[in-house]
Design a protein that fits this description.
1 helix; 4% helix; Large ribosomal subunit protein bL21; two-stranded antiparallel sheet; mainly beta
Length: 102
């Protein structure tokens, strides 16, 4: 079983070939592919975490589509002053499918 832990958008994700992962918005190249930076590679019983060995490893993903996350409501309130503030936020996300780990 081959899997890798990749760095994507300030987080780390465990991925295998065929895994669909939702990441922060990433711009793809002309073919719709992106390269993800590996932090750890597990290939059977071999675990690779050396930076020089990981420089040779490529994790390629195909962009499936762009989407937006759930709405988060931010409310601020101060008692007895009449201060109320309400703000919303939806994170821009990208859904990718891992195509190869070499």
């Amino acid at each position: 079983m081959v899997y890798a832990v990749v760095r994507a958008g300030g987080r780390q994700e465990k991925v295998e070939v065929g895994t669909i992962v939702v990441l922060d918005r990433i711009k793809a190249d002309d073919n719709g592919n992106i390269q993800l930076a590996p932090v750890l590679l597990v290939d059977g019983d071999t675990v690779t975490h050396d930076a020089k060995a990981l420089a040779k490893v490529t994790v390629t993903a195909e962009v499936v589509g762009d989407l937006r996350g759930p709405k988060i409501v931010i409310q601020k309130f101060k008692n007895k002053t009449g201060y109320k503030k309400r703000q919303g936020h939806r994170q821009e996300l990208t859904r990718v499918k891992i195509t190869s780990i070499k």
